[in-house]
């Protein structure tokens, strides 16, 4: 569908005319939308699309909302993304929540979770400062290697990994 806009154009050299004469000299021209107008319309459509997507992307489970990313970032950038939206990286409290993440993320998709030992090597804490009450570590994990200070979940189990690597992530926030 082609869009046209009517624009009022003033002819130069009308400065000596009175108001009525100037009005008569104005020309209405049927023109295609300018690049600026097109860009503004595209930006508005994109913003509208992003806004509706933002609402749809958060999934409800139990009493919380979850966001499963489609892009990859390092652990710190992933956490920042979550906190800028009033959330944080997910804290997995039980087997059911772990299974929910596994199902939504897909069996082979590695996603950052809110578990780290960055403050004290070997002392794992959730992003809220609490220790994990249950663990779903893979065999031989956490590996205890320096530099592997952030946790991710893959195939329903946890592994420690360098925080600088880029993976998808899961944000969690209270529904209230």
From TrEMBL:
Keyword Disulfide bond assigned: yes
CDD domains, sorted: CLECT_DC-SIGN_like
All copies of domain C-type lectin, residue ranges: 61-172
Keyword Disulfide bond found: yes
A GO MF term: carbohydrate binding
UniProt xrefs under SMART domains: CLECT
InterPro entries: C-type_lectin-like, C-type_lectin-like/link_sf, C-type_lectin/snaclec_domain, C-type_lectin_CS, CD209-like_CTLD, CTDL_fold
One protein family per Pfam: Lectin_C
Keywords, ordered alphabetically: Disulfide bond, Lectin
Protein name in the entry: CD209 antigen-like protein
Source organism per UniProt: Labeo rohita
């Amino acid at each position: 569908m082609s869009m046209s806009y009517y624009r009022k154009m003033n002819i130069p050299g009308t400065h000596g005319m009175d108001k009525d004469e100037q009005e008569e000299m104005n020309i209405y021209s049927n023109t295609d939308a300018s690049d600026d107008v097109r860009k503004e319309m595209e930006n508005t459509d994109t913003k509208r699309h992003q806004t509706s997507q933002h609402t749809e992307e958060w999934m409800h489970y139990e009493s919380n909302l979850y966001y499963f990313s489609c892009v990859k970032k390092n652990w710190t950038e992933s956490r920042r993304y979550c906190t800028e939206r009033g959330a944080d990286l997910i804290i997995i409290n039980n087997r059911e929540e772990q299974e929910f993440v596994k199902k939504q993320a897909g069996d082979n998709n590695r996603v950052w979770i809110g578990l780290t030992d960055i403050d004290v090597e070997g002392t794992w804490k959730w992003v809220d400062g609490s220790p994990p009450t249950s663990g779903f570590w893979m065999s031989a994990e956490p590996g205890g290697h320096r530099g592997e200070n952030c946790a991710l979940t893959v195939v329903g189990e946890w592994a420690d990994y360098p925080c600088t690597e880029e993976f998808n992530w899961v944000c969690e926030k209270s529904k209230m």
